[in-house]
Amino acid sequence: MSTRVNILNTQPEAYKAMMGLEKYIASTTLDATHKELIKIRASQINGCAFCIDMHTKDARKQGMTEQRIYLLNAWREVKNLYTEEEKVILAMTEEITLIQNHLSDATYAKAVDSFGVDYVAVIIMMVTTINAWNRIAIATELQPV
User: What is the pTM of this model?
Assistant: First the structure.
């Protein structure tokens, strides 16, 4: 396999801008579990092996159980493993990641009812950020370590 472009080395300002999004998200009240659920689920949808590997390891370090990680791609089928709030976040993650279907009014309304508009804005930014990272990792063929 050939080595592809390293964005950090060739376009450090672009990488710095992406890290700015990460710093913004870190400064918000977004719950650590919510962050990892978003990162893992979007990465699963996008097929980003590098990000799935990274974020499942991070989730384990934060205390997320193996069962919650393993069943994340089938979260709708599991009755009591994810909270109602987490289910709203996962629905938002899927709808924003699979943007051709749009973020539905129903999911948006549930999110606002569950979290309020400020937290919803942060969720949207988290989903957007991990999707950008997924695309960078996939395009540059970053490999799990």
Answer: 0.94
